[in-house]
Amino acid sequence: MTDKTKWVVKDPKRKKVFLPSPAMKKRAYFSSTSLYTTAAKNPKKFWGDMAKEAIDWKQKWNKVYEEKPPYFKWFLGGKLNVSYNCLDRHLEKRGNKVAMIWEAEPLGERERKYTYRGLYREVCKFSNVLRKLGVRKGDRVGIYLPMIPETMIVMLACARIGAIHSVVFSAFSGVNFKKRVDDCEAKVLITCDGYWRRNKAINLKSQADIAAKAKSVKKVVVVKRFEGKSPVKVVMKKGRDLWYHELMENASEDSKPVPVESNTPLFLLYTSGTTGKPKGVIHDTGGYLTQAYLTTKLDFDLHDDDVFWCTADVGWITGHTYACYGPLSLGATMVIYEGSPDMPDWGRLWAIADKFDVSVFYTAPTAIRMFKKMGKKWPKRYDLSTLRILGTVGEPIDKETWDWYFDYIGHKRCPVIDTWWQTETGGTLVNALPGIGPFIPTVAGRPFPGTRAAILDDKGQPVKKGETGYLVFKSPFPPGLLRGVWKNPKKYKDTYWGEYGNRTYFTADGAKWYDKHNIRITGRVDDVMKVAGHRLSSAEVEDAITSHPLVIESAVVPKPDEIRGQVPIAFVVLRPGIKESEALGIELVKLVRKVIGPTAKPHKVYFVEGLPKTRSGKIMRRFLRSMLVNEKLGDKTTLQNPQIVDYLKKVVGYKKK
Ligand code: WT7
């Protein structure tokens, strides 16, 4: 169903402010701001009502919310099963409805479609496989899989038996996977032989083998992605490695979902913070699912006849919430794609959207900037008239990119929903809603109904209009918000509740009020980079570089990039007597790829004599950051070695002051 009604353009001179068309308002679940005011009056009641609608509870909760700062719980005593809510409950009405359409990267390979019943069967079977392998409620399962249907199947199978999954991005290295497996002590790993990426067969199993050496790992299940003769060499270790298809052959389809208390962990997802060690963010069951369900439904105004495509990889939170749990809990049809957007050419995503009549499309600004660069000729070749709503996520979107998306993908018909959130928040938290608006380029929008955002200055006071401060959330905390950091309560307290006390969730993002209700996000205020929308910490990349025997120390900072938003730049100090060389630079870049993965590779390596440091020896990355963009450098008096600044200016070709 397309909505061709003209857009209302309000106050075009000041800035474009779009409002929903009458048709959009009519179709939308909510079209008036009274949604926000009602929710604000009693957020606990709002979320309680929403949780009743969103979830089929096996047992109703006895208390809606409880806080023991900095911990909090939602729906206490309530029991549910996520896979039941994503599958079983849809069978009666939507058993034959397509739940998931998978598109392979090679054009010659046919798409695979799963109905709700089909998906249910696979999930039941695999949950029994897991049971047979000894996986029990609360056990951790490491998932290292690309965008193939089995990924969602195994996630849902874990949820079915109450096991906690931890998905690791398949483009991360095996070394990086192992770090996470070690931390969460996964009993079973699930991976595959390999997958197609830019026409190259990636051997994932060989990377998974690195992590399989972790002490906790008993079994490794290997999905066979390549049909027929495999383009990669897979070595199966006897007694440890098992083929998925062989295990599935004899598995029973009869599997009772295990109900768990609402505050039980559903999954862990490791994310980068300010130190080198990734944090295992804990998401609970009932709160997370309520937010996943409701944000999918309201942000994208998702109805039964929609086809939803979130392009995020399931290795990130966006993939968890919007390419798995959100759409499936709603009984929607979703699309997933294995490969790269430029295979065989830059029209591929539009070809897929056209082929499957996608109506809601959700992607990252980096991807749109790339499409914009490649030109409008690509989307023009395809029929995108089924699109109703466009979304973006992961990094700030600049005005030109917003406009291009709106004009050439949405054909000025589709609102662009700029969603701000984090791995930690589980679901979106700041964005406009399609039936309410306004949709303003560079302005994410309004805090989600029933949540309480504030923007504070250094002293904890609310900022005035136009001033930048820190984005925080106040009690009652969003139901999807993290419940802890795996095996590290101190990290949880310090990172999220250390800034303004344990009743204020600190996001580590800068923000300002655009008007009374709408928020503009200005970006991270800590040492976290967003590279092509991917989250990466400076310390993580530095640790990889300093693991090289010839390196003494290093500093990695982000530099703005036209397409990728930010790219990492490395400053490296070599051991005395070691000569810098291009070859060594390349070696370090390769090392980062090996230890972390290709997304983290530095775009430039500067070999330097020293780094700016405080008297206590802490590297002052902000000097390097400012130098790279010719920004004012600020006070040097706190430095132990202020003379290094002039030297570094020359090295990077700093132009100002
Ligand atoms: C960081 C979180 C949310 C899922 C994907 C990213 C930045 C995210 C936006 C946006 C400006 C954004 C923030 C945030 N960010 N969305 N719409 N506008 N910045 O999750 O990898 O945990 O990264 O991404 O800086 O803190 P993540």
UniProtKB/TrEMBL annotation:
GO molecular function per UniProt: 3-hydroxypropionyl-CoA synthetase activity; acetate-CoA ligase activity; AMP binding; ATP binding
Keyword Transport belongs to the record: no
All residue ranges annotated as the AMP-binding enzyme C-terminal domain in the record: 540-618
Gene3D superfamilies: 3.30.300.30, N-terminal domain of ligase-like
Keywords in alphabetical order: ATP-binding, Ligase, Nucleotide-binding
EC number assigned by the record: 6.2.1.1
The protein's enzyme class: ligase
GO biological process, one term: carbon fixation by 3-hydroxypropionate cycle
Top-rank taxon, per record: Archaea
Domain Acetyl-coenzyme A synthetase N-terminal: from-to ranges: 34-86
Domain AMP-dependent synthetase/ligase: 88-484
Annotated InterPro entries: Ac_CoA_lig (IPR011904), ACAS_N (IPR032387), AMP-bd_C (IPR025110), AMP-bd_C_sf (IPR045851), AMP-binding_CS (IPR020845), AMP-dep_synth/lig_dom (IPR000873), ANL_N_sf (IPR042099)
Annotated PROSITE patterns: AMP_BINDING
Sequence similarity: Belongs to the ATP-dependent AMP-binding enzyme family.
Protein name: Acetate--CoA ligase
